[in-house]
Amino acid sequence: THFGYKEVPTAEKARHVADVFHSVAGKYDLMNDLMSLGIHRFWKLFTVSNSGVRRGAKVLDIAGGTGDLTRKFAKMVGETGHVVLADINGSMLNVGRDRLTDDGIVANIDYVQANAEALPFPDNSFDCITIAFGLRNVTDKDKALASMFRVLKPGGQLMVLEFSKPADWLGGIYDTYSFKVLPQLGKLFTGDAESYRYLAESIRMHPDQETLKQMMIDVGFERCDYHNMSAGIVALHRGYKF
Ligand code: SAM
Protein backbone atom coordinates (compact mmCIF):
# COMPACT_ATOMS: atom_id res chain seq x y z
CA THR A 1 0.00 0.00 0.00
CA HIS A 2 1.11 3.58 -0.36
CA PHE A 3 1.58 3.86 3.37
CA GLY A 4 4.21 1.17 3.20
CA TYR A 5 2.50 -1.18 5.62
CA LYS A 6 3.63 -4.80 5.49
CA GLU A 7 1.60 -7.72 6.84
CA VAL A 8 3.32 -8.91 10.02
CA PRO A 9 3.93 -12.64 10.69
CA THR A 10 1.11 -14.35 12.57
CA ALA A 11 2.68 -15.00 15.98
CA GLU A 12 3.98 -11.48 15.98
CA LYS A 13 0.54 -10.17 15.05
CA ALA A 14 -1.13 -12.02 17.94
CA ARG A 15 1.41 -10.62 20.39
CA HIS A 16 1.03 -7.17 18.96
CA VAL A 17 -2.77 -7.30 19.27
CA ALA A 18 -2.41 -8.37 22.90
CA ASP A 19 -0.02 -5.49 23.64
CA VAL A 20 -2.28 -2.97 21.96
CA PHE A 21 -5.37 -3.92 23.95
CA HIS A 22 -3.55 -4.31 27.28
CA SER A 23 -2.21 -0.83 26.77
CA VAL A 24 -5.48 0.84 25.70
CA ALA A 25 -7.99 -1.08 27.90
CA GLY A 26 -8.44 1.67 30.49
CA LYS A 27 -8.99 4.40 27.94
CA TYR A 28 -10.68 2.28 25.30
CA ASP A 29 -14.20 3.68 25.72
CA LEU A 30 -13.10 7.30 25.74
CA MET A 31 -11.03 6.76 22.61
CA ASN A 32 -13.90 5.07 20.80
CA ASP A 33 -16.10 8.09 21.35
CA LEU A 34 -13.36 10.49 20.43
CA MET A 35 -12.15 8.80 17.28
CA SER A 36 -15.55 8.05 15.83
CA LEU A 37 -17.12 11.27 17.16
CA GLY A 38 -19.51 9.04 19.05
CA ILE A 39 -20.80 7.40 15.88
CA HIS A 40 -19.72 3.90 17.00
CA ARG A 41 -22.70 4.07 19.36
CA PHE A 42 -25.08 4.22 16.39
CA TRP A 43 -23.29 1.42 14.54
CA LYS A 44 -23.65 -0.78 17.61
CA LEU A 45 -27.24 0.23 18.25
CA PHE A 46 -28.11 -0.60 14.64
CA THR A 47 -26.48 -4.01 15.00
CA VAL A 48 -28.30 -4.94 18.17
CA SER A 49 -31.65 -3.60 16.97
CA ASN A 50 -31.40 -5.69 13.82
CA SER A 51 -30.37 -8.86 15.61
CA GLY A 52 -33.91 -10.12 16.14
CA VAL A 53 -32.75 -11.41 19.54
CA ARG A 54 -35.67 -12.29 21.80
CA ARG A 55 -36.29 -12.94 25.47
CA GLY A 56 -34.74 -16.20 26.52
CA ALA A 57 -32.14 -16.20 23.73
CA LYS A 58 -28.52 -17.25 24.15
CA VAL A 59 -26.08 -14.72 22.73
CA LEU A 60 -22.30 -14.83 22.32
CA ASP A 61 -20.52 -11.48 22.02
CA ILE A 62 -17.05 -12.54 20.95
CA ALA A 63 -14.22 -10.02 21.10
CA GLY A 64 -16.75 -8.23 23.27
CA GLY A 65 -14.15 -6.06 24.97
CA THR A 66 -15.71 -3.54 27.31
CA GLY A 67 -19.19 -4.86 26.66
CA ASP A 68 -21.10 -2.28 24.61
CA LEU A 69 -23.11 -4.95 22.78
CA THR A 70 -23.36 -7.28 25.74
CA ARG A 71 -25.04 -4.65 27.90
CA LYS A 72 -27.75 -4.14 25.26
CA PHE A 73 -28.26 -7.86 24.70
CA ALA A 74 -28.48 -8.50 28.45
CA LYS A 75 -31.60 -6.32 28.57
CA MET A 76 -33.12 -7.90 25.46
CA VAL A 77 -32.75 -11.54 26.50
CA GLY A 78 -34.11 -10.91 29.98
CA GLU A 79 -33.72 -13.16 32.99
CA THR A 80 -34.48 -16.33 31.07
CA GLY A 81 -31.81 -15.55 28.49
CA HIS A 82 -28.06 -15.60 28.65
CA VAL A 83 -25.21 -13.53 27.24
CA VAL A 84 -21.58 -14.62 27.09
CA LEU A 85 -19.04 -11.83 26.81
CA ALA A 86 -15.90 -13.44 25.48
CA ASP A 87 -12.55 -11.82 24.74
CA ILE A 88 -9.01 -13.07 24.36
CA ASN A 89 -7.67 -10.22 26.44
CA GLY A 90 -7.93 -10.30 30.24
CA SER A 91 -7.50 -6.54 30.62
CA MET A 92 -10.38 -5.74 28.26
CA LEU A 93 -12.55 -8.38 29.91
CA ASN A 94 -11.86 -6.91 33.36
CA VAL A 95 -12.75 -3.40 32.27
CA GLY A 96 -15.94 -4.77 30.68
CA ARG A 97 -16.93 -6.75 33.76
CA ASP A 98 -16.30 -3.80 36.11
CA ARG A 99 -18.23 -1.42 33.92
CA LEU A 100 -21.28 -3.66 33.59
CA THR A 101 -21.22 -4.64 37.25
CA ASP A 102 -21.01 -0.97 38.28
CA ASP A 103 -24.11 -0.33 36.21
CA GLY A 104 -25.94 -3.14 37.98
CA ILE A 105 -26.04 -5.42 34.95
CA VAL A 106 -25.14 -8.75 36.51
CA ALA A 107 -27.86 -11.36 36.32
CA ASN A 108 -27.46 -13.20 33.05
CA ILE A 109 -23.90 -12.56 31.84
CA ASP A 110 -20.86 -14.80 31.80
CA TYR A 111 -17.34 -13.56 31.16
CA VAL A 112 -15.08 -15.95 29.33
CA GLN A 113 -11.50 -15.45 28.23
CA ALA A 114 -11.39 -17.14 24.85
CA ASN A 115 -9.81 -17.01 21.43
CA ALA A 116 -12.30 -16.57 18.59
CA GLU A 117 -10.29 -19.14 16.61
CA ALA A 118 -11.01 -21.90 19.12
CA LEU A 119 -14.22 -21.14 20.99
CA PRO A 120 -14.55 -23.26 24.16
CA PHE A 121 -18.27 -24.00 23.77
CA PRO A 122 -20.20 -27.08 22.63
CA ASP A 123 -21.59 -27.26 19.09
CA ASN A 124 -24.95 -25.53 18.50
CA SER A 125 -24.88 -23.37 21.66
CA PHE A 126 -26.01 -19.89 20.62
CA ASP A 127 -28.97 -18.26 18.88
CA CYS A 128 -26.94 -15.25 17.91
CA ILE A 129 -23.21 -14.49 17.75
CA THR A 130 -21.79 -11.01 17.35
CA ILE A 131 -18.25 -9.88 16.76
CA ALA A 132 -17.92 -6.10 16.70
CA PHE A 133 -14.64 -4.51 15.65
CA GLY A 134 -12.95 -7.76 16.57
CA LEU A 135 -12.53 -9.90 13.47
CA ARG A 136 -9.84 -7.71 11.96
CA ASN A 137 -7.67 -8.37 15.02
CA VAL A 138 -7.98 -12.12 14.69
CA THR A 139 -4.97 -13.85 13.14
CA ASP A 140 -6.77 -16.69 11.34
CA LYS A 141 -10.14 -15.25 10.31
CA ASP A 142 -11.32 -18.36 8.44
CA LYS A 143 -10.65 -20.48 11.48
CA ALA A 144 -12.53 -18.00 13.66
CA LEU A 145 -15.54 -17.91 11.32
CA ALA A 146 -15.60 -21.72 11.24
CA SER A 147 -15.45 -21.82 15.03
CA MET A 148 -18.40 -19.41 15.25
CA PHE A 149 -20.33 -21.50 12.75
CA ARG A 150 -19.78 -24.59 14.89
CA VAL A 151 -21.09 -23.08 18.14
CA LEU A 152 -24.08 -21.40 16.47
CA LYS A 153 -27.42 -23.20 16.71
CA PRO A 154 -29.14 -24.19 13.48
CA GLY A 155 -31.42 -21.26 12.65
CA GLY A 156 -29.04 -18.90 14.43
CA GLN A 157 -27.20 -15.97 12.93
CA LEU A 158 -23.76 -14.43 12.99
CA MET A 159 -23.37 -10.65 12.84
CA VAL A 160 -19.97 -9.18 12.03
CA LEU A 161 -19.66 -5.45 12.62
CA GLU A 162 -16.35 -4.24 11.28
CA PHE A 163 -14.53 -1.47 9.49
CA SER A 164 -14.70 -2.05 5.78
CA LYS A 165 -13.89 -0.36 2.49
CA PRO A 166 -15.30 3.18 2.30
CA ALA A 167 -16.76 4.64 -0.89
CA ASP A 168 -14.18 6.00 -3.35
CA TRP A 169 -15.13 9.65 -2.82
CA LEU A 170 -14.30 9.29 0.87
CA GLY A 171 -10.98 7.52 0.35
CA GLY A 172 -8.62 10.50 0.49
CA ILE A 173 -10.15 12.15 3.54
CA TYR A 174 -10.41 8.81 5.28
CA ASP A 175 -6.75 7.93 4.70
CA THR A 176 -5.60 11.27 6.01
CA TYR A 177 -7.80 10.90 9.04
CA SER A 178 -6.71 7.37 9.88
CA PHE A 179 -2.99 7.66 9.19
CA LYS A 180 -2.34 11.25 10.25
CA VAL A 181 -5.06 12.48 12.62
CA LEU A 182 -5.79 9.25 14.47
CA PRO A 183 -2.23 8.53 15.70
CA GLN A 184 -1.99 12.14 16.85
CA LEU A 185 -5.25 11.83 18.79
CA GLY A 186 -3.94 8.61 20.28
CA LYS A 187 -0.71 10.27 21.31
CA LEU A 188 -2.53 13.23 22.80
CA PHE A 189 -4.99 11.25 24.90
CA THR A 190 -3.11 8.04 25.73
CA GLY A 191 0.52 8.95 25.05
CA ASP A 192 0.50 5.99 22.68
CA ALA A 193 0.53 6.81 18.97
CA GLU A 194 1.67 3.30 18.03
CA SER A 195 -1.55 1.55 19.06
CA TYR A 196 -3.57 3.90 16.92
CA ARG A 197 -1.22 3.50 13.99
CA TYR A 198 -1.86 -0.24 14.35
CA LEU A 199 -5.59 0.47 14.31
CA ALA A 200 -5.39 2.30 11.00
CA GLU A 201 -3.18 -0.38 9.50
CA SER A 202 -5.43 -3.23 10.63
CA ILE A 203 -8.42 -1.49 9.06
CA ARG A 204 -6.54 -1.09 5.80
CA MET A 205 -5.58 -4.79 5.72
CA HIS A 206 -9.05 -6.12 6.56
CA PRO A 207 -11.00 -7.87 3.77
CA ASP A 208 -13.53 -5.65 1.99
CA GLN A 209 -17.30 -6.19 1.95
CA GLU A 210 -17.47 -8.79 -0.82
CA THR A 211 -14.38 -10.69 0.35
CA LEU A 212 -15.69 -11.07 3.88
CA LYS A 213 -19.08 -12.16 2.58
CA GLN A 214 -17.38 -14.88 0.52
CA MET A 215 -15.32 -15.97 3.53
CA MET A 216 -18.54 -16.46 5.47
CA ILE A 217 -20.07 -18.48 2.64
CA ASP A 218 -16.93 -20.61 2.43
CA VAL A 219 -17.23 -21.82 6.04
CA GLY A 220 -20.93 -22.69 5.61
CA PHE A 221 -22.98 -19.59 6.40
CA GLU A 222 -26.08 -19.11 4.26
CA ARG A 223 -28.10 -16.10 3.12
CA CYS A 224 -24.99 -13.97 3.68
CA ASP A 225 -25.31 -10.27 3.13
CA TYR A 226 -23.99 -6.95 4.36
CA HIS A 227 -25.20 -3.46 5.07
CA ASN A 228 -22.87 -0.48 4.68
CA MET A 229 -22.96 2.27 7.27
CA SER A 230 -21.35 5.71 7.10
CA ALA A 231 -20.47 5.28 3.40
CA GLY A 232 -18.86 1.90 3.98
CA ILE A 233 -16.49 3.00 6.72
CA VAL A 234 -18.24 0.23 8.59
CA ALA A 235 -20.21 -2.77 7.31
CA LEU A 236 -22.53 -5.13 9.13
CA HIS A 237 -22.31 -8.65 7.70
CA ARG A 238 -24.89 -11.25 8.50
CA GLY A 239 -25.09 -14.97 7.82
CA TYR A 240 -27.24 -17.84 9.03
CA LYS A 241 -26.60 -21.45 9.92
CA PHE A 242 -29.31 -23.85 8.78
N1 SAM B 1 -16.56 -5.46 20.68
C1 SAM B 1 -16.03 -4.36 21.45
C2 SAM B 1 -16.51 -3.05 20.89
O1 SAM B 1 -17.11 -3.06 19.82
O2 SAM B 1 -16.32 -2.02 21.53
C3 SAM B 1 -14.49 -4.40 21.50
C4 SAM B 1 -13.78 -4.22 20.19
S1 SAM B 1 -12.03 -4.05 20.37
C5 SAM B 1 -11.65 -2.93 19.06
C6 SAM B 1 -11.40 -5.56 19.77
C7 SAM B 1 -11.35 -6.67 20.80
O3 SAM B 1 -11.00 -7.89 20.15
C8 SAM B 1 -10.33 -6.48 21.90
O4 SAM B 1 -10.97 -6.48 23.14
C9 SAM B 1 -9.39 -7.66 21.74
O5 SAM B 1 -8.87 -8.15 22.94
C10 SAM B 1 -10.28 -8.68 21.07
N2 SAM B 1 -9.60 -9.74 20.33
C11 SAM B 1 -8.53 -9.64 19.53
N3 SAM B 1 -8.19 -10.83 19.02
C12 SAM B 1 -9.08 -11.73 19.50
C13 SAM B 1 -9.26 -13.13 19.35
N4 SAM B 1 -8.44 -13.85 18.58
N5 SAM B 1 -10.28 -13.73 20.01
C14 SAM B 1 -11.10 -13.00 20.80
N6 SAM B 1 -10.99 -11.67 20.98
C15 SAM B 1 -9.99 -11.05 20.35
From TrEMBL:
InterPro entries reported for this sequence: SAM-dependent_MTases_sf (IPR029063), UbiE/COQ5_MeTrFase (IPR004033), UbiE/COQ5_MeTrFase_CS (IPR023576)
Pathway(s) annotated for this protein in UniProt: Quinol/quinone metabolism; menaquinone biosynthesis; menaquinol from 1,4-dihydroxy-2-naphthoate: step 2/2; Cofactor biosynthesis; ubiquinone biosynthesis
GO biological process: aerobic respiration; menaquinone biosynthetic process; methylation
SUPFAM superfamilies in the record: S-adenosyl-L-methionine-dependent methyltransferases (SSF53335)
EC number of the protein: 2.1.1.163, 2.1.1.201
Name of one Pfam family that matches: Ubie_methyltran
Binding residues annotated for S-adenosyl-L-methionine, in chain numbering: 66, 87, 115-116
PROSITE patterns found in the cross-reference section: SAM_MT_UBIE (PS51608), UBIE_1 (PS01183), UBIE_2 (PS01184)
Enzyme category, top tier: transferase
GO molecular function list: 2-methoxy-6-polyprenyl-1,4-benzoquinol methyltransferase activity; demethylmenaquinone methyltransferase activity
Domain of life: Bacteria
HAMAP family, per database record: MenG_UbiE_methyltr (MF_01813)
Family indicated by similarity: Belongs to the class I-like SAM-binding methyltransferase superfamily. MenG/UbiE family.
Primary role: Methyltransferase required for the conversion of demethylmenaquinol (DMKH2) to menaquinol (MKH2) and the conversion of 2-polyprenyl-6-methoxy-1,4-benzoquinol (DDMQH2) to 2-polyprenyl-3-methyl-6-methoxy-1,4-benzoquinol (DMQH2).
Protein name as it appears in the record: Ubiquinone/menaquinone biosynthesis C-methyltransferase UbiE
Organism: Methylophaga thiooxydans DMS010
Species lineage: Bacteria, Pseudomonadati, Pseudomonadota, Gammaproteobacteria, Thiotrichales
